[in-house]
Structures are given as C-alpha cells and as structure tokens.
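Exercise 3.2. Students should predict the tertiary structure of the chain below and write it as structure tokens, then compare their answer with the key that follows.

Predict this chain's 3D structure.
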Amino acid sequence: MNVLGRQYSGAMRPLLAMSTRYFTPTTEHVALRENLIKLIDTELNPHCEEWEREKRFPAHKVFKILGDAGYLGISKPEEYGGMGLDISYEAMGAEAYAHLNSAGAGMGIGVQCDVATPALMNYGSEDLKERFLRPTISGDYVACLGVSEVGSGSDVASIKTTAKRDGNDWVINGGKMWTTNGAQADWMCMLANTSQGPVHKNKSLICVPMDTPGVKVHRTIDKMGMHASDTAEITLEDVRVPHDFLIGEEGKGFIYQMKQFQNERIYMAAGIVGALDRCMEATIEYCAQRKAFGQSILDNQYVHYRLAELQTELECLRALYYKCIDDHLAGHDITALASMLKLKSARLSRIVTDSCLQFWGGMGFTDDVLVSKMFRDSRLMSIGGGADEIMLDVICKFMGTSPGSRS
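Answer key:
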C-alpha cells in the first residue's frame, strides 16, 4: 500500500513510526511564542470584548501593530520584511494567537499570515511581491482569500468565477463566499477559471485589489461564532485587473491552492493545540477551586479521569502536528498527513471544549467565561478550511479504499 508516497505490503503501518527526524520546539521557538503572547496580552486582549460585541476587529489597526513587531511575516523572506524563518516558527505564532480572547480576530490574523499569502510568496513575480506581499507583511494591507463560492465550498474544482483575457487585462465575473477579512481587505488572492479545460487544470490565482471597480462587498454574514471576524460575500462584475497580476503560471491555480491548504492545515492545527492547552489549563484551575458536596470538583474521580483522557488525546494530536511539520520541512508530500491532522484537530477541538464546558456547570452556559466561547467557536473547525468529510475522502484515496481508487 502506498501511503504518503511510501510503499508497504500488508496492513498500513503506524505513520508516526516512519519519521527519521522529530521536531521539538527549541528555546528560540518558545521565545517567539512567549514574546508574541506578551504583545497580545498588552496590546490586543484588552479590546477583545469590544470586538466581539461589535462583531468586527479593526484589521488595519491590529495588523499594523503586529506588522511593526514583525509577526505577520514569520516564515516570509527577509527581503520583503519577514523574519525568514521556517513553518515551525509560524506554527509557534499560531499557538500564540490562541491566547487572543477573540478567536475571530485570531482567524483573521491567520488568513493574513498563512492562508492568503503562501502562493504569492512561492510563485508570484517580484513585482507582485512588492505590490502585495511586502505591505501585507508590514500590516499596511489586509489580505483575504477568494476561493469558496455560493454552491462551491469544499468542492474547489466546481467554482464558477471566470477571468477572461482581454488584451493586457483579465476581466473577472462571479462571486466569492465565506471570505474572511473580506469587508476590510485591500486585496484578494482569488481563484478563477481562466480557460474551458479540465477542472483541475483550468484555474489560476490572481491578485485582485479590492478597490477595483466592479468589486463589491455584497454583505457581511452573521455567524454563530467567530464573532469578531468579518465574513463577507463578494461580487465581481466586469472587474479588470492587469494580466501581470496572475500568480505563477496560468492553469496552475488549483495546484497552488491545494498547496496553500497544506500550510493552512498545519497553521490551523497549531492554533487548535494552543487553544486546547489553554482550555484544559483553565478547566483544571476552575475545577480545583470550585467546591461541591464538600470537596473540589477536581477530586471527583470521573472529572480527573476524564481530564486525563483528554490530555492524552491532546498529546497525540501534538505528536501528529509535530510530525506534519517534520515531513513538510523534509520536503515530503504531506497531503494525506495534513488531511489527517486537520480531521483530528477539528474533531478533538469539539470534544475537548464540550467535555470541559460540562465541568463549568451553569457558568459554562454564559458568555462570561472563555471556555464557552471556545465551545461555540470550535464548531467551525470541522467545516472551514475543508470539511471533515473532505478530509476523510482525501485520506481514503491515499489508502485506496474509496470507490474508484481500488485496483
């Protein structure tokens, strides 16, 4: 069986046993994370309640604070204002952003750092990097990703937006849905059909300035969670952008976007690990202090046994997350492993927050405690960035167990 590009006979062997290198955060990794947490606690967390109430965080202001400190370009090249570090340091940044008291703001930052920009960094021209990447790293521009559409969410190949060549321009028509940062963005990394060919070879990524005539924020979407993140529906009508705003090669957009998803899935899992660490710590502290029937709740055997089970699951997730970083740094194809990581982290985020919330009793059903917000916001993890079912489909294809993949 060929899984993750390696050939095996018989039953699939444990994936973690394959690694020849084991990522462990160094003192430099920890220092980056802790210094960013200090900045978050000082500059951002005092405002999170207000952002949650208003259902929008001020992206330009927040990104400028982070950009001035260098945290929007941790893994971006130094020549464009980044730190020039690898994805393992970017992951430490994602863990730190889990300390924001607004997951919606954290999600918007994630789009800026590691969702809308990897393809531009890896395949964009020097001119595009100067125009869009540099000001995004500095925090002067807000970025968004335009992939999902009405009727085309996880099924990326089915998007309908078109970009047709007209002289030296692209003329774009269509729309984008579920666009994080969309209402405040200065530019969009947009996926569009640029030819009539096969659906995996007819798409391209294009940089679209959001102030271009014909680009309109049709509406912002009211959501059950991630309140401070503005999520927009964008319409594009006869939008003209220069042909040179194409990222990389025409027709390679689907491939580029799939590679961007791998970065996003590591980043998302890192953030979930950071959030669940925080959730567990807060719950243990609360249960130790809260008294019921003459003893602390934590002294109840079911409670401390359940917390032990959850911590065990969290450490397994951490190992998978570190393994994914290892393979990415080694240059391996991480499509299957990143899908497993996305699936496991999303599901565990729901399990841990639900179980912990139960131990908070009535307080867990209020907006006054962080765990209730984590419970609410974690529901997105199994939907956004590729639904659980899509992750299962990808994994089954690598296993050779899905219909049509068996030889």
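Discussion points: The longest strand covers residues 169-180. Residues 253-289 form the longest helix (37 residues).
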